[in-house]
Structures are given as structure tokens and as C-alpha cells.
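for the recovery benchmark. C-alpha cells below, seq after
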């Protein structure tokens, strides 16, 4: 997706999720019933594998959070718009955990190059 496409997709996702907050009688998307990325795309008549893939949804959600400054929550079950700070804190806790795991992976790989015993033939 181009930058313009990501921005447009992010705005569409935020609009859908906010609509669910404002009109729960019409749209049930919340922490108990989040919406999968594939279902988000279906709402906008996008076809998986042709028009978008999972990384496009994640990229648009990241844009929603970072650039549009919208509290789009997520879990392994899907996405929803935070109704309160506690819901957002739950999402940020998961994000921070993933950051920590990634940093550990980087540090572990870096240690390979710092440990002279890792190069037995040199």
C-alpha cells in the first residue's frame, strides 16, 4: 500500500470502529466482540490476497494509532476502539511486551558477534 492508501484505509477503519462506539445498537464491535482484519476488509469490499493482506491492516492500524492518534485496541481476536483508558492500557501492555520480546531477540543475536567463542575456526 502507498502512503496515501494507508492513510485512507486507516481513516476508514477508525470511522468504522468509532461508529460502533457511538451506535452500539447498530454495530457490535468492542473488547468482547472485536472485528478481525479480514472482516474489516470485507466491510470495504476488499478481497484478501488481491486488494490487501494482513500486513496492510496492521500497517493501517499502526497509522491510526501513531499518526491519527486514535486508541485502536487489539488482541488476538481482532480490533476495536477503546471505550476507556483501561481498554487502551490493556492494548499498550501487549504492545510493550512485544517490544520487550523483540529487544531480547536483537540482544541475543548481537551477543553472537560479541562472543569470541562463537567463532571456533578463527
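predicted aa per position
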Amino acid at each position: 500500500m502507498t502512503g496515501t492508501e494507508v492513510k485512507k484505509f486507516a481513516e476508514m477503519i477508525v470511522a468504522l470502529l468509532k461508529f460502533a462506539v457511538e451506535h452500539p445498537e447498530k454495530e457490535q464491535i468492542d473488547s468482547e466482540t472485536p472485528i478481525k482484519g479480514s472482516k474489516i476488509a470485507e466491510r470495504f469490499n476488499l478481497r484478501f490476497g488481491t486488494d490487501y493482506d494482513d500486513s496492510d491492516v496492521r500497517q493501517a492500524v499502526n497509522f491510526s494509532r501513531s499518526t491519527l492518534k486514535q486508541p485502536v485496541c487489539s488482541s488476538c481476536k481482532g480490533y476495536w476502539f477503546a471505550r476507556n483508558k483501561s481498554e487502551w492500557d490493556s492494548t499498550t501492555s501487549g504492545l510493550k511486551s512485544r517490544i520487550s520480546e523483540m529487544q531480547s531477540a536483537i540482544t541475543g543475536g548481537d551477543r553472537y558477534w560479541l562472543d569470541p567463542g562463537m567463532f571456533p575456526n578463527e
